[in-house]
Design goal:
The protein has 461 residues and is α+β, with helices and mostly antiparallel strands. It contains ten helices and 16 strands. α9 packs antiparallel against α10.
Length: 461
């Protein structure tokens, strides 16, 4: 073991030159400076070159070398100034061939003259191409950003129609003003019973000389409480009565453009504020294109049935004339609106486009009957959206399930299409926008009512 320790003590570690050593003249400058070297035992703590115009201060505070006042004997001391060494009073001088050496406590301070080192060369041959590439790319990107910012936006980008209707801002903007709507009650007395379809081949209701594109429905002037609405007889016969004195007398009983029926009464008498020869269904009263018939399709004058003296129309709910099968309290037949015959009357299979509501679903607050009552009043608005699409797609049909929220004030705050097989975005958007304009009675509990309401649309057959 001792031999091994002895061999270990004889090991020496020396640097091995991997390249030729540089010449001292190439590393040193001709200028002479004072080198201050501070050591603690074998450890070198500081080496610093001090030129003649500089000084080296030791002590506490802002000094070149920090040493305590208890060792130095003062708070600070200028060790080198103007190329002259000033030994501290607490230091002990020692002889050294290299220069002035003295001890200060456990520290050794050696000051000797040496040549100053040459300054390292700066710059050199640097490849500037990467910097040119990066700078050029950044400049090009900056020009593109500035160019994009100067291009004005397209007019379509400024349209509010592209805003998401599910956002809270759009919902607040689209929310209609809350209105108080009186409760609507219906007469629960005896109905007019079942009616019959008008006699003759079914034809489209309206005036063949009118090209009004807007869907409008017919009107027969008369008092609002009229219990026996009637259409006038054939129009051709009426036109002969417009000449001379007969025309003046006829003006007191009905207008020339009143809806006519081959089997109607001598004069027109309804429950509308004006006379108009329009379609059977429409958004408002007015003249519309048709073939003078009583149905929704065909070119005949009747409605495809065998009824005499009646103008009942299938299941459209537009029945004028006498009902059948009901009696009032006094035993006499009741006058009123009745339910009309079935679709298969007299074996006729053709029918016009239809809209049928489905089963309503609600979370409470408003009963299904109240919701259906309000929706029924706005059926023409929904059907108008469907009929608009039929102009370009006559075979369009399907089921549209809508969902809307009724606010505590009764106004519709949000309306959207939950599911649809109609494949017509324009029609679906038209229906949801129409629903946002509806107003319902205020919910009983003052909360928000969620309603799911389906509409089934069938094309003409």
């Amino acid at each position: 073991m001792e031999t091994m320790n002895r061999a270990h003590d004889e090991d020496r570690y020396v640097p091995i030159a991997r390249a030729p050593l540089a010449d001292a003249d190439a590393l040193d400058a001709p200028e002479e400076v004072l080198e201050v070297r501070v050591s603690w035992g074998d450890d070198v703590l500081l080496i610093q070159h001090v030129r003649a115009s500089e000084r080296f201060v030791i002590g506490e505070g802002k000094t070149d070398w920090l040493v305590g006042a208890d060792i130095l004997g003062a708070s600070a001391h200028v060790l080198v100034e103007g190329g002259v060494v000033h030994a501290p009073s607490a230091a002990t001088p020692r002889e050294d061939a290299r220069g002035q050496l003295f001890t200060l406590g456990d520290f050794e301070i050696l000051v000797r003259k040496v040549h100053a080192g040459r300054a390292a060369a700066r710059g050199g041959d640097v490849d500037r191409r990467p910097f040119l590439y990066v700078g050029g790319a950044m400049a090009l990107a900056g020009l593109m950003v500035v160019g994009f910012s100067l291009v004005p936006p397209r007019s379509s980008a400024l349209s509010l129609d592209r805003i998401d209707t599910t956002s809270r801002l759009v919902q607040a903007m689209m929310q209609p003003v809350a209105t108080e709507e009186p409760e609507v009650t219906f007469d629960t007395g005896p109905s007019g019973g079942e009616g019959q379809r008008h006699d003759g081949e079914e034809g489209a209701m309206g005036d063949p000389e009118t090209r009004t594109p807007t869907p409008r429905h017919y009107g027969v002037r008369g008092p609002r409480d009229n219990q026996n609405p009637e259409m006038a007889r054939e129009r051709l016969r009426e036109q002969t009565l417009t000449a001379g004195a007969l025309g003046a007398l006829r003006a007191t009983s009905g207008s020339w453009d009143s809806p006519t029926s081959p089997y109607g009464a001598a004069s027109a008498l309804g429950a509308d504020p004006m006379d108009a020869l329009g379609a059977l269904m429409g958004a408002d009263i007015g003249a519309g294109f048709g073939a003078l018939g009583l149905g929704r399709i065909g070119t005949g004058r009747g409605a495809g049935g065998d009824g005499r003296g009646t103008v009942g129309l299938d299941s459209l709910g537009q029945t004028l004339g006498h009902g059948a099968g009901a009696t009032c309290d006094d035993g006499r037949p009741c006058q009123g609106y009745g339910r009309v015959g079935g679709l298969q009357g007299m074996g006729r299979q053709s029918r016009g486009p239809e809209m049928r509501p489905g089963v309503v679903e609600t979370n409470g607050g408003l009963s299904r009957e109240v919701i259906q009552r309000v929706v029924r009043r706005h059926h023409n608005e929904v059907k108008f959206c469907y009929e608009q699409a039929l102009r370009s797609r006559p075979d369009l049909e399907g089921r549209v399930t809508t969902r809307f929220l009724i606010s505590p004030s009764g106004a519709v705050s949000t309306a959207l299409v939950q599911a649809s097989t109609l494949s017509s975005q324009e029609t679906e958007s038209c229906i949801s926008q129409a629903i946002t304009r509806w107003s319902f009675p205020a919910p009983e509990n003052g909360g928000v009512v969620s309603v799911t309401y389906p509409f089934v649309f069938s094309a003409a057959r």
